[in-house]
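job 3f2a | input accepted
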Amino acid sequence: MKVNNKKIIIVDDKELDIELAVEAFKELNINNQIITFTDGTEALKYFENMKKYLATENEIILVILDIKMPKISGLEILEELKKNEIFKAIPIIMLTSSKEENDLIQAYKSGANAYVTKPIDYSEFIEKITSIANFWIYTNEFIPRTMK
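job 3f2a | predicted structure (148 res):
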């Protein structure tokens, strides 16, 4: 099932975690385009380019960010996205192995919509992605246009 024509963005420096998340979305029959980045710098470049094309309508349904990444952290990406009117209404989920209280607090202060810790177990990881998808893609109502 394709939930409108919107994209899902996953930014994580661990390719295996990206592969597991993409596989979980496929198992859930979510056929939206999934764009992945293993580098925060490349992800930010993508979002900068998207600003030019998102003047009237958001094309992104969900962003999933890891926190601990080289070069640019997920928290830095989150802060950049949430201070921009074009991206402000897009749900951003922090999916991370960090259980540090400071990361949790900073994520919510910076505008994260959810903070989910990555389990080590494969089936538990799939369950977390399933929970994210069930709420943020199937249950949540989206703003059809950027907030102005």
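job 3f2a | The first helix runs from residue 15 to 27.
job 3f2a | closed
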